[in-house]
Amino acid sequence: MRNAICVLVKGLDPGAAKEAARIRFPGAIVQAVSARAAANARYVEMIAAQTVAANGTANMLAKKPEIDLLLRLAGTTQISQAIAQVGAKPGEEFLLIVVAGHRTKRAGPGPLLGRTLGRRRLTEEELDGVERAALLNAARG
């Protein structure tokens, strides 16, 4: 899944960055998480693919896909725990994630402000995280 944009952002408010991305990418899933949440765009893409596949089905971990993505990245079904673990905090570098779906409209002009997260082969730890995220549905059910 290469329809996820992962940008490391410094010096901006996470809420404002999310709102700007929502305006620029109508219909996209937009989330801001701590920069510590992921170091590999491929990892984020695989987690995002789980959220996209679950969206609109009984497999969502939350009512909103943005929260589902946050929960899967944190590896938990508890929203407060996910925010504590991987939530973006004002004043800290964060990862802005934009996941384009079939209802996403084409983006307007200009790049997102930040440095694109690199893509590489998944580490064993990242593979475990992808598996853990997928198993959250079983833990919830």
Summarize the structure.
This protein has 141 residues and is α+β, with helices and mostly antiparallel strands. Helix content is 43%, strand content 14%.
CATH topology: PF0523-like
| Number of helical stretches of at least 4 residues | 5
* CATH level-1 class: Alpha Beta
Please give the alpha-carbon distance between the first and last residues. 26 Å
Low-confidence stretches: none
Q: In percent, how helical is the residue content?
A: 40-55%
**Class by helix and strand content?**
alpha+beta
For the report, how would you describe the main beta sheet? 4 strands, antiparallel
Helix-strand pattern: EHEHHHEEH
Number of domains: 1
The mean pLDDT is 89
| Name of the CATH architecture | 2-Layer Sandwich
**Overall geometry:** globular
Q: Give the strand line-up of the largest sheet.
A: 2-3-1-4
The CATH homologous superfamily name equals CGI121/TPRKB
User: Roughly what fraction of the amino acids lie in strands?
Assistant: 5-15%
